[in-house]
């Protein structure tokens, strides 16, 4: 997992319980990656509640049953018949009462959007019924909320912030549960939902999501920060934009309109905000020209060494037409199979060409770094190409350059004003 992510930071790890049974809950934007990332925070072997759809087929059923998964049926899994989860629930109660750590994705399904969807009541039911079915073994059962914050889902070598929240005491709701189970379950569920919203970037509507995305791009290009500092700035931006939308809708609408015009203009000319920040003087142009030559040479080298491997991997993922949240999982699983195969092919080619053992070892050891360099060089070449095009546009049409810089300056001032309050 640490190889897949560029930065992978866990905050407040001391809040994870080491001895007693507990439930781990998180948002669910990245399918099978989410339970693995959550499990990595715990010293225990974590078991998982998994939807019954994953168990279809003999191999899948064996795999998920063997690797600590408890099958849970949802309405979409049973095709109209009665849902039968009594056995799964009892297994969960017994497992927790015996000191186990159980992971649940309380939203029920995976969503790539930066938004905590309505949390289902299942987690609260399992927690309270565990206390109810094992009164002599457990006085309390903690639910530990965890916010998974991927800066870009489905991409290799991006950042992940894992925020661990304050454990929620189920015992505080248990007395009420004995009197009015429905109300206690609802209250505990609301507490879980509220904590997950605090631990993640929560954008409950599409206009807010769009504006946040645009503002985030501008802030990132003005000042790049480390992964944790970036999340903290984004959390502040989320709060500022939500407050502006609710308290000052006219100002919010004006900001949204300006941002929309600016990014539409960029898209029309195939430009990015990062390019607009670049200097247009001659020395910077020479620097970018030298940079382009370097990245082009690296791109050619990486293509020779790992190009076919990377393109086959991407082609398989594309042809499979997977839901976006499954891309990371698909890339990792395919790499586990294709990477050793590609190493064997490279080794055979070097042997046929009678290249010495030392150079063969060097070549094979460079395969994984070359996959990273290939992505990076492609990104840099694309950026430099846009820069040269932008420079050409500005020399050809100074009004265009003035107009786009005015839009950006207006946006930047307003966004930074919001964050300074």
Molecular structure report:
By secondary structure, the chain is an alpha/beta fold. The protein has two domains: 193 residues, Glycerol-3-phosphate (1)-acyltransferase (3-Layer(aba) Sandwich), CATH 3.40.1130; 218 residues, no CATH class. It is built from 16 helices and eight strands. The model has no long low-confidence stretch (mean pLDDT 90).
Gist?
With 421 residues, this protein is α/β, with parallel strands linked by helices.
List the helices and strands and how they pair.
Blueprint: E1 7-11, E2 22-26, H1 33-39, E3 46-51, H2 58-66, E4 69-72, H3 75-78, H4 86-97, E5 101-104, H5 122-133, E6 142-150, E7 159-164, E8 168-169, H6 171-179, H7 181-199, H8 206-222, H9 227-247, H10 249-268, H11 273-276, H12 282-320, H13 327-352, H14 357-365, H15 367-396, H16 398-420
Parallel strand pairs: 1-7, 2-5, 2-6, 3-4, 3-5
Antiparallel strand pairs: 6-7, 6-8
Helix pairs in contact: 4-5, 5-7, 6-7, 8-9, 8-10, 9-10, 10-16, 12-13, 12-15, 13-14, 15-16
Helix content: 55-70%
Proportion of beta-strand residues: 5-15%
Can you tell me the overall shape? globular
Rounded to the nearest angstrom, the radius of gyration is: 25 Å
The helix-and-strand class reads: alpha/beta
Largest sheet, strands/sense/barrel: 8 strands, mixed
Order of helices and strands: EEHEHEHHEHEEEHHHHHHHHHHH
| Beta strands, count | 8
Low-pLDDT stretches = none
């Amino acid at each position: 997992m640490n190889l897949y992510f560029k930065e992978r930071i866990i905050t407040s790890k001391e809040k994870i319980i080491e001895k007693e049974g507990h439930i781990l809950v998180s948002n669910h934007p990245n399918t099978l990656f989410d339970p693995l990332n959550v499990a990595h925070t715990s010293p225990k072997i974590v078991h998982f509640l998994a939807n019954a759809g994953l168990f279809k087929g003999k191999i899948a059923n064996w795999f998920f049953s063997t690797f600590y998964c408890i099958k849970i049926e949802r309405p979409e899994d049973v095709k109209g018949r009665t849902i039968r989860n009594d056995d799964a629930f009892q297994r969960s109660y017994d497992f927790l009462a015996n000191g186990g750590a159980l992971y649940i994705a309380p939203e029920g399904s995976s969503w790539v959007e930066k938004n905590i969807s309505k949390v289902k009541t299942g987690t609260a039911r399992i927690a309270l019924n565990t206390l109810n079915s094992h009164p002599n073994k457990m006085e309390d059962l903690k639910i530990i909320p965890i916010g998974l914050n991927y800066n870009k889902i489905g991409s290799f070598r991006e950042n992940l912030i894992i925020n661990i929240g304050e454990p929620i005491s189920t015992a505080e709701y248990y007395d009420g549960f004995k009197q009015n189970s429905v109300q206690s379950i609802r209250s505990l569920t609301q507490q879980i939902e509220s904590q997950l919203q605090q631990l993640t970037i929560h954008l409950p509507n599409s206009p807010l999501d769009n504006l946040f995305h645009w503002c985030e791009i501008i802030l990132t290009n003005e000042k790049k920060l480390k992964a944790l500092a970036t999340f903290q700035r984004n959390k502040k931006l989320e709060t500022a934009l939500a407050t502006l939308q609710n308290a000052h809708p006219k100002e919010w609408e004006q900001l949204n309109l300006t941002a929309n015009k600016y990014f539409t203009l960029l898209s029309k000319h195939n430009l990015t905000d990062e390019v607009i920040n670049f200097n247009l003087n001659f020395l910077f142009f020479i620097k970018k020209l030298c940079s382009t030559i370097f990245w082009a040479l690296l791109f050619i080298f990486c293509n020779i060494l790992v190009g076919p491997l990377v393109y086959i991997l991407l082609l398989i993922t594309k042809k499979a037409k997977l839901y976006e949240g499954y891309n990371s999982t698909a890339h990792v699983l395919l790499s586990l199979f294709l990477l050793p195969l590609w190493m064997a092919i490279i080794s055979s080619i070097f042997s046929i060409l009678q290249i010495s053992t030392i150079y063969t070892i060097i070549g094979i050891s460079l395969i994984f770094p070359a996959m990273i360099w290939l992505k990076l060089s492609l990104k840099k070449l694309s950026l430099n190409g846009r820069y040269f095009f932008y420079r050409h546009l500005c020399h050809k049409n100074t009004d265009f350059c003035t107009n786009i810089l005015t839009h950006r300056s207006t946006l930047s001032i307003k966004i930074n004003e919001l964050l300074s309050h």
